[in-house]
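Most newcomers find our protein records easier to grasp once they have seen one. Read left to right, the backbone structure tokens trace the chain's path through space. Nothing more is needed to start thinking about how sequence determines fold. An example says more than a description, so a record of this kind follows:
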Amino acid sequence: MSLSRRKFLELGVSSLAGGALGTSLYEPHECVVSEVEVRLKRLPSAFDGLRLAQLSDIHFNSFMTADHLNQVIERTNAQKPDLVVLTGDFVTAAPQMRDRMARAEQAWPCADVLRRIACPLGCFAVLGNHDYDTNADVITEALSTRSRIQVLRNRAIGIERDGARLWLAGIDNVTTRHAKPVDALFGVPNQECTLVAVHEPDFADEMRKFPVDFQISGHSHGGQVRMPGVGALYLPRWARKYPMGHYKFGEFQLYTNRGIGVIGLPMRFLCPPEITVFTLKKQA
């Protein structure tokens, strides 16, 4: 059967649209592992080659089930990280105040899955804006008691290996105005290598003022939906300058993770969810 040119084009457009929709609905389950080498001048030799895994923006809900998150954790453990850092938004905020506590309580089944994370140097976390918009204390309690994850709310911890020390500082949420970098870095020697976790990537412009070597963030979801030649259709505040990937500013570096969950519609397009595995190397 012959087709008119117009009908042929209509069918082609419909097929492309259907394929794009199918891809966008499927893509949230196609988590990729991004291997990133980060060279730091102040990194102690004892930590040369350290593998740090980052997960962000889990948004545990009906779109991010325990089974789905289990698969992500299995894939994370398969990378054999030495250290794991979670950069916020474990749950999703509710528009109605009366529903917020119920959303916060979802942190408990989320923490039950996260307890399966395996890494010898420990698992640490900071909170995101959705965590604060539900109940930050409930999220913190769930992570610390169920999963033994240390939540760094404007504080730092020294990680030791073979007599050397590497600092990890956690900045509390920026969007909700809880970030206090001076408090977080209190007691951290200026000359020692320091990593910082903060949910919002654009806060890097502030962190660059401090003796910090490397910041890891999330928050943006990479835009979640990206169009060729256009980029992200929407980016939240505090994630518009540095929405995804690796950025370098002299001796200071930043990486923005695309996250593994979704908010709004369960849709991603040209922006797959991401587990990031950093290999820290001492720069000569």
